[in-house]
Amino acid sequence: MATVLDVASYILEKQGGTTAMKLQKLCYYSKAWHLVWEERPLFTNRIEAWANGALQS
Questions:
Q1: Consecutive H or E run containing 47
Q2: Would the pTM of this model clear 0.85, i.e. be above it?
């Protein structure tokens, strides 16, 4: 299973540089959509949607 760092690295590799907030949101959406499509989480790291970005723990 991937980690949130693996997902972030993949996004940066494909997209190039981006802001921290945008990267956090893309990781959050990646986890959510993977859960919808595959019925299992993409990574086990906890990530939450916040008004001004995501909290990763």
A1: strand 47-50
A2: no
